[in-house]
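[retry 2/3] alpha-1,2-Mannosidase: previous attempt timed out, resubmitting with same input.
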Amino acid sequence: AAVKAAAQHAWQGYREVAFGADEVKPISGGINNPFNGWGATLVDSLDTLWIMGLTSAFDEAVEAVADIDFTTSPRADIPLFEVTIRYLGGLIAAYDLSGQQSKYRVLLDKAVELGEILYAAFDTPNRMPMTYYRWKPAFASQPHRAGSRVVMAELGSLSMEFTRLAMLTGEPKYYDAIARITDEMEQFQNNTRLPGMWPTSLDASGCAKPAQMAGSPVGSGAGLRGAQQYFSNSNGDAQVGPPVRQGEDGLNSAERASKSRQEQKAAQADLSLESKLRQPDTRGAGSELEGGNLGQKGGSHLRTDFGSTKRKRQSEIPSLHGLSQAEKDELVSASSSNATAHKQELRAPPESNRDPLTGAEICEPSGLHSVTRLSAETFTLGGQSDSTYEYLPKEYLLLGGLVDQYRTMYEDSIEAVKDELLFKPMTIDERDVLISGELKISINYTDGELIKMFQSNGEHLTCFAGGMFALGGVIFDRPEDVEIGRKLTDGCIWAYNSTTTGIMPEGFTAAMCPGRWDEP
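[retry 2/3] alpha-1,2-Mannosidase: success.
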């Protein structure tokens, strides 16, 4: 009752002074619009209103959602991560929780409208998204790359929202977009300075630095394994690879036609392995969320051995094999009628190493890699990393346990966390609690040795970790992780109770008990 009353108090305050805005300023009562002014609190609160049985407030909010115009904003760019988790996730969660009722269909319609806009952020040579997407036509119409310094969590925390959108709409392109990110992160995961985890900043540009071109062992990545996929042309027909905008890769038609026979054969080989489009289930959320099968068109199910080969593309869900041509055409048809004027088809990867803006041969294709050769990188479950790790077991559940890639990536990361980040804080009553700290790793310039510096810092943002450990422990049969999850949650409770106000600080440093956390 107290929790519900607190939620009602917060909602009423927003409704009275900032309804339709992103945020209410709690002290002045003013409004704040950091997330494009589309009503972040309004959309992000929908599922909470439904769960708490506040149906009238939910209905009022849904009516307001219908008036949101995602095609315009006073902000020049779109923060992809924030907009995805707050708006796209909020709309989809509310639609699912409310039973996908026809009277709430506007929630899905708006999710599709927004999804089309966000999908255009992936229009880069290596398909890594621009995490701050400058979407105005003057910029969006020009060739561009993903950032050379992006926040890891902003790149790795898009999977669930885009996957569920693909399921609900039958549009596999949304899933394929995030599957490419997952594949790249998997390639880099065990090649970082702390194998199993990623640093808080990543170079997602797809271009290696000079030292990395020469064979630097530190985080070079491996690049995309073929980029062929089925897309639709203007007639709705299936084609391999999206249309190339003329001249974007610095080659004229004669130069492009002169590519060697060997390269053509390699491309055909990639196509035979990679271009079999598969599609997530378009049925309701219930069975998948409970670990059920993800069906495919025609009533058959995903093969149960999917993901057993670690390098298999996860976007292969499920096969088009056995479908009629009409059914195939339907699956690869143009996007739904909710597509906005901002919809763009992705450009094909450039066929040379030339910069699409200058024509200079400065880009050596590369996968995800470090932003620095020698300086310290930070590894943590806290800010700039947190949700990437949290999404791995949740995405595994969303896909009904059929994509083993998410399990292996999660388990690799958790082992690194247990080995390097957990510590036991000194407490007056010697409580058996844990905190997840922070590890900085640099490289010695003279001998190339790793220099590790552990910091016994705690963050409020790491308080999700207890639940993540417990969830992963249950679904992956790791009972010791459930106990670790309890201790991590107790660590956050201890941090709350240790302050005069009873409010845990956003960040703090704690004295650390000697020895490892798991020693008696």
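[retry 2/3] alpha-1,2-Mannosidase: Residues 1-112 form one domain.
[retry 2/3] clearing retry counter.
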